[in-house]
Amino acid sequence: MIRIFDTTLRDGEQSPGATLNLTEKIEIARQLDVLGVDVIEAGFPITSQGDFDAVYRISRELERPIVAGLSRCVPRDIDRAGEALQGANRPRIHVFCATSKIHREHKLRKAFDEIVKLARESVSRARQFVDDVEFSPEDGSRTELDYLVEITAAAIEAGATTINIPDTVGYAVPEQYGHIFAYVREKLPQIDRDGIYLSSHCHNDLGLAVANSIAAVQNGARQVECTINGIGERAGNASLEEIVMTLRTRADFYQPYDTGVVSREIFKTSRMVSNLTGLSVQRNKAIIGENAFAHEAGIHQDGIMKKRETYEIMDPREIGVPESKLVLGKHSGRHALAKRVSDLGYTVDDATLQQVYDRFKALADKKKDVYDEDVEAIVDQLLDQDRQLWELVKFNVTAGTNETAVALVELRDSTGQTGKQAAYGDGPIDACYTAIQLITGVQVLLEDYQTRAVTGGKDAQGEVSVHISHGGHKVRGRGLSTDVIEAAVLAYLSAINRIKTDDMKTVQATTMDSDDGADSLSGQVVQP
Ligand code: KIV
Ligand code: ZN
Fold it and tell me: Which domains can be identified in the chain, with CATH numbers?
């Protein structure tokens, strides 16, 4: 069996634009447990109180999976990871240190021997806290092979039980990456003899992360590091669902490499991660994209009707894709809606479900067909309401060709007080946003603005998603309405409400450029 090491909550959360608070991280971790992953990397404890808390809470709550905390080869990082894992059911400390020539010379400015010493000392230090220690030579795929062998031997001698060889910058190609694993195994027979796990960790800069991971498996890797939806730094990490489904769908070729993942939970997990991170999944994404099982060509549709396998290599039910995307009409019952809400990756209590149901009925009255995306939008909006400090009372806007747009916005705060402001702007949305900033007093930078129709047809709802930043804190917001300006206002307001209510994430963990000392971490390190 191949171990699946999920790093959605650590490397995945390093994706630009992904922000998760503690509650959201815990919700995803619980679902990863249901999905059946073997290891969950829950955070990088030294980087922020939020990451510390995530590792602490998740590692104590979950009993089956191993829960890992990341750490540089820096004593206080390791101690902090050890502290976060105190009382954990199945703790792991994952220490890493760069080893490639370019990182040694330009980033660390250390000789290789010094790095080996650091790795040895760090693994021993981590072993004082836990028995399960993973060591990663960062930029391993660009490290001289014999150096890789030497540092791997040193880490194992110091007590590492898993050695992860990352393709940190997504530079490797399958034959070469596979060869690294074969080479290290051949030179170090203790790996197989003593049951040391070799692990792959691939980034997708050349679109080869999954292919490289599979090449590693064929050459002896028994752990694969990956993320849901392939989210992660830059072009992302290897996608969990693609690795799992490749090994399963092509069991004829890859036997005996299978994983313990419950594939029917993949779709739900994917939706949950997308909804909570705000990172949408591209339509044509393998396995879980909207088009992954859509057949447009007549010849294909005909073939599918005669025998599904003519054009489908996987059964969508195996991945947990709901049987039809056309959910419900106004006669659908509460039970059917509850099931769909759960299939879409949401956990809601009865009271919220009732509100979802009421809104669903109201929408079904206006719109003939209600799709998955409509249901998602309703739930998202309701969940967002929990953090509603300011809500929209009304807005009015005038705009036109060669006219300066003017908006009048009225908001109500949580004490019931209303505030009203008028503002000019470069277009109606800019005018509304300026008015909102004046009322709330929160100055933010709009970093990204996207709009799309949630479903097809003239009666489609418009969705706007925004990313804003405020004092180094980045958040997203979504708004939905059949009126696109109202959707834009709601999205902005939801992001501003989030800034005020988020219970964590004081620092975005941007760490890969500084592993030679905690003081050089970009951002502020929040001590407990
Ligand atoms: O890409 C990388 O090298 C990493 C390490 C911390 C394993 O994420
Ligand atoms: Zn990585």
Answer: 3-277 (3.20.20.70), 295-313+323-382 (no CATH), 384-516 (3.30.160.270)
